[in-house]
Structure formats: structure tokens, C-alpha cells
């Protein structure tokens, strides 16, 4: 399923914040991404309407199965690409920024090859 890069970033951010804080609200996302609260509210409405997240009466956001799947895929790509770039000697902050850009456009074939390379290198 193809969704916009911005939606992938929101879903990944929700996953990361959930792991870090346990509960996630729109304000947490706004603070993490340094976006305005209205921008995040619009994005959350779109993600809810498309079946990626739910929001309870208290404003707490939960990833639905489709959103969880995308978030986990993007986050795995982010972590692995950051590790790979850092292993090549790239500064960790730059590696993380570049991984964030690459994670959305890399083909499944190229990512699988990088993943296999990193795993082989880790095993050595």
C-alpha cells in the first residue's frame, strides 16, 4: 500500500513516542516533529479517516493494524539505514537525517540487500 511520505513520518513518530512514553497525544507529535498543533490535528484526522489510527475520548492515539504495519516497516528501515550509514563513517546525526529521507523511497530489493549486508557484517 502506497501512502504519502508525510503520513509515514506521522505513523513512525507515533510508534516511537508510544515506545518512549507509553501514551501518545497530538501535542506530543507536534512537539516531537516541531509542527503546529493545527497541522497535526489535520494529519490525525486524515489518518483516522483512512484507518491508520484511532483516537479515544481522552485524545490518546493508537495505531490500528494497517498503521502499525507501515510504522514498523518505516522504523525498521530508519534504524537499519542509520546503522549502515554510521558503519560507513557518516556522523550519527547526519546518518539519521539521511536515513529519514531514504527510508521512504528505497525499493524493497535495495533495502533487502542492505539489510543482508548489515546482518552479515554483524555476524562476523
Provide a compact summary of the structure.
With about 120 residues, the protein is mainly alpha-helical. The protein folds into two domains: about 5-70, Orthogonal Bundle (Arc Repressor Mutant, subunit A); about 75-124, Orthogonal Bundle (Diphtheria Toxin Repressor, domain 2).
Mean pLDDT: 92
| Count of domains | 2
- Count of separate DSSP helical elements: 6
User: Helical proportion?
Assistant: over 70%
Architecture per CATH nomenclature, i.e. the level-2 architecture of the largest domain: Orthogonal Bundle
CATH class of the largest domain: Mainly Alpha
Order of helices and strands: HHHEEHHH
CATH fold naming of the largest domain: Arc Repressor Mutant, subunit A
Descriptive report:
There is one protein chain. With 124 residues, the chain is mainly alpha-helical. It has two domains: 5-69, Winged helix-like DNA-binding domain superfamily/Winged helix DNA-binding domain (Arc Repressor Mutant, subunit A); 73-123, Diphtheria Toxin Repressor, domain 2, CATH 1.10.60. It has six helices and two strands; from the N terminus they run H-H-H-E-E-H-H-H. A two-stranded antiparallel ribbon has the order 1-2. It is elongated. It starts with a helix and ends with a helix. The mean pLDDT is 92.
